[in-house]
Specification:
The protein is α/β, with parallel strands linked by helices and 391 residues long. The protein folds into two domains: 6-253, 3-Layer(aba) Sandwich (Aspartate Aminotransferase, domain 2), CATH 3.40.640; 257-389, Aspartate Aminotransferase, domain 1 (Alpha-Beta Complex). The chain has 15 helices and twelve strands. The chain is globular and about 75 Å long. It starts with 5 loop residues before the first helix and ends with a helix.
């Protein structure tokens, strides 16, 4: 393959055409594949060729196109597509770790990621140490010679802390630890995670890759050796594979993702700037604002602030009143969608956390996470201002 830029890879990478030379990628809706002879079946189970498939749980031509395309887009050697974003997080971590291993993780994480680290991995004898992800000294103090994995969200959900991928990776690689990055908020459009030192990159394809609220999906990206020898054996035997129809949806999503994400990011900055300084709000949090603590890092690492911002209405009562007064913004718990979505993390995505943990993470009773869609920027801002003025 020629060296193409991201937008070209997002449209053309990984194409596998049938004998009919279709323009749009074919959907291979089949659970299995036929062998000409018993000897062919035996040979394929010993070692399948690049375009040879055995069972949909192991691989499928449509799924392989998505895996190849997103890997080319990210600059990774290979990928394994999963049934959801959390299947990707769980698969990446569980395929690497065993009882007695040590993980260092950023404390500020999506609620389900916290559950895997706090409840699942520790249940099976994995030791997990949590740190303030923005504090490099904390990472250095926590990473030990026997640390196996370092895990963090490059931009934390929902408080939008930005983690220094390059510097944390240096600390991890000094002890040969594997750096696993959940890169959802950065998106493949702004990601430079491979060049910055990440070994394994995870996306929830449900978010910006689909970007239109249609399907669940995820992907684990890394070296060919890691994907084929570590991730694939675990995933194909535990059943977390992506369906062919979902892979086709994700392929179609990739074709327009760059245009959508850049437009959403521009609107997110516009909305954040329009709300910053509003005396009714306790805070406006957006990595693209100069007031954000990691603004310089955001510019260096991504070049843009992304599609998500957060505001604090002060109290849960005020937050709920604001939510219920909105006309355009949709109350839901997804993000990265064409529709603008607002979430109250303390009572939804992070409700299982104790009040003390929420406070430590900055998930206040008034915090709202805003995922900016493709609507007109002035309409979105006016809708928020009208709701805020009613507080």
């Amino acid at each position: 393959m020629k060296t193409w830029k991201k937008r070209t890879n997002a449209v053309h990478a990984g194409i596998r055409r049938s004998q009919y030379n279709e323009v749009s990628e074919a959907i291979y809706l089949t659970q299995g594949f036929v062998y000409d002879t018993a000897e062919d079946a035996e040979a394929r189970f010993i070692k399948a060729g690049e375009d040879e498939f055995i069972y949909a749980r192991y691989g499928n031509p449509t799924v392989a196109m998505f895996e190849d395309r997103i890997a080319a887009l990210e600059g990774a050697e290979a990928g394994f597509a999963t049934a959801s974003g959390m299947a990707a997080v769980n698969g990446a971590l569980t395929s690497i770790l065993k009882a007695g291993d040590h993980v260092v993780s950023a404390r500020a994480l999506f609620g389900s990621c916290l559950y895997i680290l706090e409840e699942i991995l520790t249940r099976y004898g994995v030791e997990v140490t949590f740190v303030d992800g923005t504090d490099l000294a904390a990472w250095q103090a926590a990473i030990r010679p026997d640390t196996k994995v370092v895990f963090f969200e490059s931009i934390s959900n929902p408080t939008l802390e930005v983690i220094d991928i390059a510097e944390v990776s240096k600390l991890a690689h000094a002890v040969d630890a594997t750096v696993v990055v959940d890169n959802v908020f950065a998106t493949p459009v702004y990601s430079k995670a491979v060049a910055q030192g990440a070994d394994v990159i995870i996306y929830s394809a449900t978010k910006h890759i689909d970007g239109q609220g249609r399907a669940l999906g995820g992907v684990i990206l890394g070296t060919e050796d890691f994907i084929r020898k570590t991730v694939e054996p675990y995933m194909k035997h535990t059943g977390g594979a992506m369906s062919p129809f979902t892979a086709w949806i994700m392929l179609k999503g990739l074709e327009t993702m760059d245009l959508r994400v850049r437009a959403q990011t521009a609107t997110a900055l516009y909305v954040a700037q329009g709300l910053e300084g509003d005396g009714t709000l306790s805070s406006v949090i957006y990595p693209g604002l100069a007031s954000h603590p990691q603004h310089s890092l955001t510019n260096a690492q991504m070049g843009a602030g992304g599609t998500v911002l957060a505001i604090d209405a002060g109290t849960q009562e005020a937050a709920f009143k604001l939510l219920n007064a909105l006309d355009i913004w949709t109350i839901s718990n997804n993000l990265g969608d064409a529709k603008s979505i607002v979430t109250h993390p303390a009572t939804t995505t992070h409700q299982r956390l104790s009040d003390d943990t929420k406070a430590m993470l900055g998930i206040t009773p008034g915090l709202l996470r805003l995922s900016v869609g493709l609507e007109d920027c002035d309409d979105l801002l006016d809708d928020l201002r009208d709701a805020i003025n009613g507080l």
